[in-house]
Structure formats: C-alpha cells, structure tokens
Amino acid sequence: MTLEKGSLILLDYTAKIKDTNEIFETTRENDIKDSQDFDPSRKYEPRLLGVGEGWVLKGLDDALLNASIGEPLNIEIPPEKAFGERDPSKVRMIPLRKLGEKANEVGVGDVVELDDRMGIVRFIGSGRVQIDFNHKYAGRTLIYDANIIKKIESDDEKISSLIKRRLPIDSADIIYEKKDSELEIRIPEKVFLLDGLQIIKRGIVSDLSKFVPEIQNFIFIEKYPNSNTNTSLPNNDTATNANNKNGDSSAVEDSGLKKDEIRDNASSSAASIDDNSTSSSPPPPPPSETSGRKGSKKTMK
After folding, report:
1. Strand, coil or helix: what is 66?
2. Do residues 201 and 262 make contact, with C-beta atoms less than 8 angstroms apart?
3. Which of 13, 83, 14, 3 is nearest to 51 (CA)?
4. Confidence of residue 2 (pLDDT cuts 50, 70, 90)
5. Is residue 149 helix, strand or coil?
6. Is 25 domain-assigned?
7. What is the span of the domain harbouring residue 81?
8. Per-residue pLDDT tens digits for 171-227
C-alpha cells in the first residue's frame, strides 16, 4: 500500500554521505553506537513524519510519496534536493580580528556565528580567516537506508505522537482527555520552565488541528501543588475569627490548579505556525538532519 500526502508514519532510517559513507543522521542505535558521534543521552527510535509536509529534505519527502509500508528503501538524493549546491560566493576571507576577543581561540573546523550567520572555519593564516557559510553538506549526494515501520491511523495514536513530537517528554508522561470536539492536555511539571513552551503549545495546536480536524478547542492544564509544607488548617473558630478580623470571607486560597486555555478553530490554528522543519539549508537540531561530526561553536560579536 503506497502512501498519500498527509499520511503520518514512523520511519526508521540511517542517512549517509555517499562519497564518504559518513553517517550524519540515524534513528538506529546499532548503526552508530561504535562511532564518535554516538550520543548515549539520546533515545534512538523511529521518527514521526508527515509525508509530503516538508518535515524532511525534499528528496526524501518525494521518495516517501511513492513508497510502501514495510518495503525496504534505498534512496539516493542529489544535492539540489538535499542541502543545495555549493555557492562559492558564500566563502569569505576576512581579517582574524573581526572575530573579536575570542579570535585566538578559533580553529579550523569550528562553527562560528558572524553577522547573524553560521559558518565553518576553513583556513587561518597571516592574520586572516576563511569562513564558509555554505551548509556543511552542501554539494553532497546523500543515501538513505530506510523502512516505513507503520502508518498511524487512530486518533489516539495521532494525538500522543504529535504531542511527543513537540514536547521533550516520554510517552508515559503524555496525559490527555478528549471530550467530543475538545481536548485537554496536561503539561508535565518537568517542562513548566521549558524555553519557548508557549510556542510549543501553539505548534501542538497547529499539528492536531491539521491531522485530527474534529478537535475544535484545546485546553492545556498545568497543575501546581501547594508549596506550604504545613498542611494543618486552623479550627473553625480560629478561621472564623480571622475572617471577621480581616473582613475576608475565604479562609483558604485554592492554588491547586491552573488552566491555560487556548481556543482556536482548526483553520486559524493551522495557519498560526509554519512547520517546515527541514529546508534546503535546515537549521541545526530535534529533526532535522544535523547529527554529523561535531565541531565547537563560537559566537562572535
């Protein structure tokens, strides 16, 4: 069975540079565990993809539209459908002093930020430095060894998968309740202080509005327990006297539950965020195409 645009799938794959056989991204631990790029803190598992949605490189997206579930895939992607051709005009030679106070710490292969652009140091000498602003894999042909594990069909699995796609949490921490056209999602305490949490919520709303369109309203719940360790309450007489003295009829403040309610219809939510997670020159990672050989990054003013 072939896939249609908009299908949600789980894809297991390893991606390599054709001429060097270097693995730059994989969902398979066994393929990379003996490499210096192996990350023991990462959970290697099949990746959620929306077919034809631009979540991956164009060459891979196009190939998935003609793929079948369970059929092994070996996909060769040319530069123009991967990270683009190399552009010589993006290679600049500048005075080393322009890198500022940390100029003497920079080495060949380092990733630096200059004029709000990321580049790779290619050469240093005679007080000058050559910086390449092309993508690291620009001009390279890629090989994907892949397999479509499954197509996600049920609403429950779509909801949990799309929440996990945005929030860095385990499946066991995903708690939600669907009531007709309304969905309540409980935010785990461990991510209350996560940078960009409000943007993540909007992303979840956008994804779910598109792939589970019958949901019309979204409620995010954050539960805060009472931080007062003294759980004993005053007796009725004391509470009454305190109320009379202060002119306040409520003796106990209910701080147990906070609801952050976002009510959007499906069309406005889907338009609120552009989730093109991988383009011809995607930003570095969650997802996309960035686990290659590591180099240090230095930000230059």
Report:
1. coil
2. yes
3. 3
4. confident
5. strand
6. yes
7. 1-85+139-153+277-288
8. 999 999 999 999 999 999 999 999 999 999 999 999 999 999 999 999 999 999 888
Helix (H) or strand (E) holding 29, with range, is: helix 29-32
**What is the model's pLDDT at position 301?**
44
Is the separation of the CB atoms in 287 and 55 below 8 Å? yes
- CB neighbours of residue 183 within 10 Å: 23
Percent of the chain scoring above 90 in pLDDT: 69
The residues, ordered by sequence, that sit 6+ positions from 271 with a Cβ below 8 Å of its Cβ are none
Question: Alpha carbon of 217 to those of 154, 161, 202, 208, 262: distances in Å?
Answer: 19, 18, 12, 10, 7
Tokens of 185: 């999602």
Tell me, yes or no, whether 102 and 22 share the same domain.
no
| Distance from C-alpha of 294 to C-alpha of 54, rounded to nearest angstrom | 26
Asked if 149 and 7 sit in the same domain, the reply is yes
Q: Which residues of 141-170 are buried (b: 16+ CB within 10 A; e: fewer)?
A: bbbbbbbbbeebeeeeebbbbbbbbbbeee
39-43, 86-90, 280-284, 297-301: the lowest-pLDDT one: 280-284
